[in-house]
Amino acid sequence: MPGLEHGSYAQYVVMQESQLAMRPTSIDALSAAAVPLAGLTAWQGLFTHGGVETGQRVLIHGGAGGVGHFAIQFAKAKGAYVITTVSTDHVAFARELGADEVIDYKTHAFETETATSTWCSILSAATRR
Question: What is the pTM of this model?
């Protein structure tokens, strides 16, 4: 949030109306609260720190997760070629998000699938469970 770069422990804050957005009624409050963190993490990883540009190749690990699913969409919107790793259950979801190539890490090792690729950026949004 603008003006809160270092966070806050306050229960209430004063904000300009232009700095706020209404929560869609189709999303519960808890889910809506997670969107800014996951979305901003993906944005910063790709553009602020990764410098992703149109036409570049991006490998996104964990493309079906909270950060990864935003990263796929942001990178595609920028015009990047997106390859992502997901588990078997999430292959169709990653394709729906627009990934150009989807690697099921349970059945294929991404290292072999992408051994001849040249990457401009790699974003690891994956976690271990």
Answer: 0.79
Distance CA 116, CA 90 (A): 25
Q: Is 22 left (phi over 0), alpha (psi -120 to 50) or beta?
A: beta
Q: Is 55 left (phi over 0), alpha (psi -120 to 50) or beta?
A: left
> Which residues have C-beta within 8 Å of that of residue 81, sequence separation ≥ 6?
55, 56, 57, 58, 100
| Reported confidence tier of residue 31, pLDDT bands at 50, 70, 90 | confident
pLDDT band at 9 (very low <50, low <70, confident <90, very high): confident
Question: What is the distance between the alpha carbons of residues 88 and 2, in angstroms, rounded to a whole number?
Answer: 39
Report helix, strand or coil for 59. strand
Kindly tell me if the per-residue pLDDT of 21 is higher than 70.
Answer: yes
